[in-house]
Amino acid sequence: MSSATTDPTDRLHGLDALRGGALLLGIVLHASLAYTPTPMWIVAEDGSQVASTLFFAIHLFRMTAFFIIAGLFAHMMLERRGWAGFVRNRLARIAGPLGLLWTPVFAAFLIALLWKVAIDNGGSLPTEGPPQPPMTVFNFPLLHLWFLWVLLIFYAVVLVLRAPFAALDRSGGWGRRVDRLTGAATGPWSPLVLGAPLAVAMAWVPGWIPFVGIPTPDTGLVPNAIALTGFGTAFLFGFLLDRRRDLLVRIERLWPVFLVMALGTGTGAWVLGGGAMPQLAPVADPVARAGAAAVYGFAVFASALAAMALCLRFLSGYSAVRRYLADASYWIYIVHMPIVLALQVVMFQIEAAWWIKFAVVIVGTFAISLASYELLVRHTFVGGWLNGRRIPWRKARAGTDALPAE
Questions:
Q1: Rounded CA gap, 25 and 31, in Å?
Q2: Residue 169 lies in a domain
């Protein structure tokens, strides 16, 4: 079913699928880190060019697409609930999980990390080591939960700017101009328009590494400028896109164009980053860096919009399985990282081909995380906290839907 056949007030199942898929792909992304030919992670095994290529492809679009959807849903919630309801909801479902679940997740990750350290040290932890710097706002280890912190920053910016914009736009003239600009920016040229600020930010940073692209802001409470620019542009575009919901049909119909763009520019960015043998060094020459940044910035938004258009085109119908996985994806992403690392450490001690280990880590992490969601979250108060509604067991057996349409 195409999104063009659905009513604008219907739940956007295609975008739900994209949001859930982006989070679930995090398991594959983080599992692949142990098996790249260039060491990139705590566990580093003899890897494969396939693993590094898979990492690059997923990292290229995943979180940019997520932030486009996050911006769209943020505007939708603001319109439906008002600023007070929006604040209450985001504090409960974004700030709450970050504040309450970061500590156990970090503790579990640290245990897995120390396990690997003990293995490397002959079976016991070293008694001496370099002194650790004190934890500050600049080195705070957010781990993979960084996206919750960045979302809170974007929500705060939206709320701060909302009041003065509303005061200046009592007649609605400014809003109509913004809507026209959003329409003008939406078309085959969108990857170029949206990718330009990101390209400038990457070219501006001397230490930028083309293979890494957007550096993950997982350390420190002050996100790096490249991540703020790239994800901020995506969030803003999604936010404005919800004001022009009709443009979703335009994006959907452009899926072949965006897909060709994504494959072409994505391949170019991959080559410039070292190809299947990642080059984890910055580009010293400013001209070469600017060229690589231009290609990568274009590729990021071409691939994110291709993913969005494909989901709108082919996944806009209701599917109980996709809906269940979309609901589960939030919890799975929150808890997956320590499980991934622990399974990587287990497989590190076993003789097997890299792809067997890789598959075991992915399947094992997904199975453990999904089982914990079904048994501990979906039908308990935790499910109500994270997903907005607890599903009683009897209703789950009857196959009822999990969430309200917001």
A1: 10
A2: yes
